[in-house]
């Protein structure tokens, strides 16, 4: 059994991919044909498996080449894992900031005395987060979610992630959402007001989740590994330019 908690997170901003792809595959099995000759699909109890890729990464700086080599050294065996963030910044329920660009994360937050760290950086925090409105069992296909700080309701579908005590970070999306209901709860000693939704998930929960568990919408993460058929080679062209592709499959 792999270790799914306390894993490093892929620094996808550092790699600057030009294309991304995430999908949930393998949620059903061919179940023969009915009397009309139509295919019958049987849903699997574990649901589909998340797969993803980042393509055309922009690599040129020495440190970027070092980082690619570290990722390859860790992941090429397909037996080790890391947290892979999903760059869903554009489509998430985030408020729009300057330049008409959604803001999933606020950066540069100072200390209480308005000072920053010695390198000029500050704290950061997500603009939108959620909590479990009710406990949900292992393999649950429907959850109750409370959402706070959002610029819009949950509607078609959004990516979000839950940190499970054993399975670590897992990413989910939904195919159906109820109408919102106002909700207020105490989160870390502060009363927050938002909306509650009942969501039907694209794949069932990987682990039971108690009520009140925090849910992340900003850069949702998932424990993933390289597919067994994929390896990440170190390559470079003239002027030490490289545009590698990274492929991932959910870790089990």
Which helices and strands occur, and which strands form pairs?
Elements: H1 12-15, E1 19-25, E2 28-33, E3 39-43, E4 49-55, H2 62-75, E5 82-85, E6 105-109, E7 123-126, E8 129-132, E9 142-148, E10 160-164, E11 168-172, E12 174-177, E13 181-187, E14 190-201, E15 214-216, E16 221-225, E17 246-250
Antiparallel strand pairs: 1-4, 2-3, 4-17, 5-16, 6-7, 8-9, 8-15, 9-14, 10-11, 10-15, 12-14, 13-14, 16-17
Low-confidence stretches: 40-44
The count of β-strands is 17
Shape: globular
Cα(first) to Cα(last) distance is: 8 Å
Helical residue percent band: under 10%
Task: Spell the H/E element sequence.
Answer: HEEEEHEEEEEEEEEEEEE
Overall radius of gyration: 20 Å
Tally of individual helices? 2
Strand percentage lies at 35-45%
Mean pLDDT: 87
Content-based structural category: mainly beta
Main sheet properties? 8 strands, antiparallel
Short description:
This protein is mostly beta strands and 252 residues long.
């Amino acid at each position: 059994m792999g270790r799914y908690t306390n894993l490093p997170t892929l620094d996808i901003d550092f790699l600057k991919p030009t294309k991304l792809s995430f999908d949930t595959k393998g949620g059903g099995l061919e179940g023969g044909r009915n009397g009309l000759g139509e295919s019958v699909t049987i849903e699997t109890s574990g649901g589909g498996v998340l797969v993803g890729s980042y393509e055309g990464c922009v690599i040129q700086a020495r440190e970027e080449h070092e980082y690619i080599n570290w990722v390859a050294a860790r992941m090429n065996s397909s037996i080790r894992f890391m947290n892979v963030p999903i760059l869903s910044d554009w489509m998430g329920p985030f408020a729009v900031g300057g330049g008409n660009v959604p803001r999933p994360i606020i950066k540069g937050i100072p200390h209480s005395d308005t000072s920053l760290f010695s390198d000029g950086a500050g704290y950061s925090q997500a603009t939108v987060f959620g909590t479990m409105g009710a406990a949900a069992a292992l393999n649950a296909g429907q959850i109750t979610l409370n959402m706070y700080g959002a610029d819009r309701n949950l509607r078609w579908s959004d990516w979000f992630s839950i940190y499970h005590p054993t399975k670590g970070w897992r990413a989910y999306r939904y195919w159906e959402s109820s109408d919102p209901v106002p909700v207020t709860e105490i989160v870390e000693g502060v009363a927050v007001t938002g909306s509650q939704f009942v969501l039907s998930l694209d794949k069932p929960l990987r682990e039971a989740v108690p009520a009140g568990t925090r849910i992340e919408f900003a850069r949702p993460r998932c424990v993933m590994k390289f597919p067994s058929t994929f390896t990440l080679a170190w390559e470079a062209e003239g002027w030490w330019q490289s545009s590698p592709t990274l492929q991932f499959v959910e870790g089990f």
